[in-house]
Amino acid sequence: MGNQRIEATINDHQVIELSITPKDRDGDVVDVENVTWASSDEGVARLEPSADGLKCVAVSTGQVGTATVSCTADADLGDGIEPITQECELTVVQSNAQSLNMSAGVPAERVDEEGESATA
User: Fold this and answer.
1) Residue 110 lies in a domain
2) What is the C-alpha separation between 58 and 107, in angstroms, rounded?
3) Does residue 105 form part of some domain?
4) What is the CATH number of the domain that holds 24?
5) Helix (H, G, I), strand (E, B), or coil: what is residue 53?
6) Number of domains in the chain
7) Could you list the pLDDT tens digit for every one of the 120 residues in the chain?
């Protein structure tokens, strides 16, 4: 159990939610204590853990690079309480324009160069 690594990629203006689901060898969800989240590079990804520790939002700081986000918790997996760890290699890449938002303004009367109404 534990020490499994996952990978994720976000752009330099995104966030990603990470979550843990601790399970024993039978696949049953177990309670955890002392949950801690850590980023190997806070300059790339800043972490905002939830109050219960089961989720964490990794926030890109705008810097391109890679950070290892790890979560460690104490759990009773059947042989007594042991620490378990999950890691995610988070890669932050430079963003490119992905969309162009356009909105229509309020309709107005068209005027000519002298400011006279051009609708006739």
Assistant:
1) no
2) 43
3) no
4) 2.60.40.10
5) coil
6) 1
7) 445 678 999 988 889 999 999 888 888 888 899 999 999 999 999 999 999 999 999 999 989 999 999 999 998 877 788 898 999 999 999 887 666 566 677 777 777 777 777 655
* Token couple for 39: 């980023």
Contacts of 45 (CB under 8 A, 6+ apart): 39, 58, 59, 60, 61, 67, 69, 90, 92
The answer to whether position 22 is within a domain reads yes
> Which is it for the CA torsion 93, 6, 70, 30, positive or negative?
positive
Q: Which residues contact 59 (CB under 8 A, 6 or more apart)?
A: 15, 45, 46, 47, 48
Six-digit token string for 35: 């949950």
**CB atoms closer than 10 angstroms to residue 77:** 17
Range of the domain at 87: 4-93
